[in-house]
Amino acid sequence: MNIHEYQGKQLLKKYGVAVPLGNVAFTPEQAIEAAKSIHAKKWVVKAQIHAGGRGKAGGVKIAGSLDQITPIAEELLGKILVTPQTGPAGKKVKRLLIEEGSDIEKEFYLGMVLDRNASRIAVIASSEGGMEIEEVASKTPEKIVRESVDPLIGLAPFQARRIAFGIGIPDRQVNKAVKFMLELYRAFVDQDCSIAEINPLVLTKSGEILALDTKLNFDDNGLYRHKELLDLRDLGEEDEKEIQASEYGLNYIALDGNIGCMVNGAGLAMATMDIIKAFNGDPANFLDVGGGASKEKVEAAFRLILSDPHVRGILVNIFGGIMKCDVIAEGIVAATENVGLKVPLVVRLEGTNVKLGKEILHHSGLNITSANTMADAAEKIVQLVDQAAGGVVK
């Protein structure tokens, strides 16, 4: 789950992480009041959307006087920001962060993320703040410092000092930087974060270490421990179909293709999309129904896939372990009848009760094409979609 920058800063502030003074505003009137409550020589007005690259897209403005706040707020509120992370459709700005301006001496990058290969939290830092860390890794990897954290010990002060010296924090500010990192690590662990990114982390001319921009993502699997975080969720920033999917416990991401996919397991779902592409097809979505889908969940998945007007066919690829193939087959038959399916449907089942599952599909009397392997399934759905479109089979 993602939250806005201002929400992330409010959360980190509770842990003692240093952030600039700021307030959220939903209207130009609220923006000027927020600026007046912050005694500063200049203010930063920042569009709040769930996407990076806001500055380059014109979503961050500097106001040198209170008179400039209102026109800037009027310009940004309601504006569609298009960044590399929003896609061409962009995102509408509905709220702003009004923040005190900072006199920046130097910018750095600091991030924490789960290293799944090592089953540890990795702390990544760089002297190149304000840039995408992927770009730094590609062009100047020697400027990246990395520490792997032992989960039994946590981030050790000596590791934080090594990071601080490694990215060029001045000697006088090393202790402040160490304190900042230890507090950020505590917040990361306490709140079940999946990502904590401070970009840029800044050293001000007065010698302060501040989180100038903050990105916090949370592990959905840990949200049951943090009910208060659910109140921070902004549904207006999420895809409507993804919201519907979350209500049924489905993992759904919309794509640009025309072949809907329903799969159990994230790895199998990605492999299914890959093999569709290998046969010159285009997947319309990533959809993982999980390991214990019911008939109702399968029907919800079908309705979700078909809510995309670009879908011209559906591929169901299920490996039955915890999920039994006969239960899935019954769900597919019920869903096909209830939603009035009119596009080609290819089903590949394998695993527990697969023979019974295939018999259920065969005796249903519905227009369902069976497949034996992933390649067979992908080839068939691509052919059926092409034929239905009147095109040439690729």
TrEMBL record:
Keywords: ATP-binding, Ligase, Magnesium, Metal-binding, Nucleotide-binding, Tricarboxylic acid cycle. Residues 9-227 form the ATP-grasp domain. GO terms for molecular function: ATP binding; magnesium ion binding; succinate-CoA ligase (ADP-forming) activity; succinate-CoA ligase (GDP-forming) activity. Substrate binds at residues 264, 321-323. Its cofactor is Mg(2+). Pathway: Carbohydrate metabolism; tricarboxylic acid cycle; succinate from succinyl-CoA (ligase route): step 1/1. InterPro entries: ATP-grasp (IPR011761), ATP-grasp_succ-CoA_synth-type (IPR013650), ATP_grasp_subdomain_1 (IPR013815), SUCC_ACL_C (IPR005811), Succ_CoA_ligase-like_bsu (IPR005809), Succinyl-CoA_synth-like (IPR016102). GO terms for biological process: succinyl-CoA metabolic process; tricarboxylic acid cycle. Coiled coil: none annotated. It catalyses: GTP + succinate + CoA = succinyl-CoA + GDP + phosphate; succinate + ATP + CoA = succinyl-CoA + ADP + phosphate. Its EC number is 6.2.1.5. Mg(2+) binds at residues 199, 213. The keyword Acyltransferase does not apply. GO terms for cellular component: cytosol; succinate-CoA ligase complex. ATP binds at residues 46, 53-55, 99, 102, 107. SUPFAM superfamilies: Glutathione synthetase ATP-binding domain-like, Succinyl-CoA synthetase domains. It comes from the Bacteria. Heterotetramer of two alpha and two beta subunits. Succinyl-CoA synthetase functions in the citric acid cycle (TCA), coupling the hydrolysis of succinyl-CoA to the synthesis of either ATP or GTP and thus represents the only step of substrate-level phosphorylation in the TCA. The beta subunit provides nucleotide specificity of the enzyme and binds the substrate succinate, while the binding sites for coenzyme A and phosphate are found in the alpha subunit. Belongs to the succinate/malate CoA ligase beta subunit family. This is Succinate--CoA ligase [ADP-forming] subunit beta. It comes from Sporolactobacillus shoreae. The lineage of its organism: Bacteria, Bacillati, Bacillota, Bacilli, Bacillales.
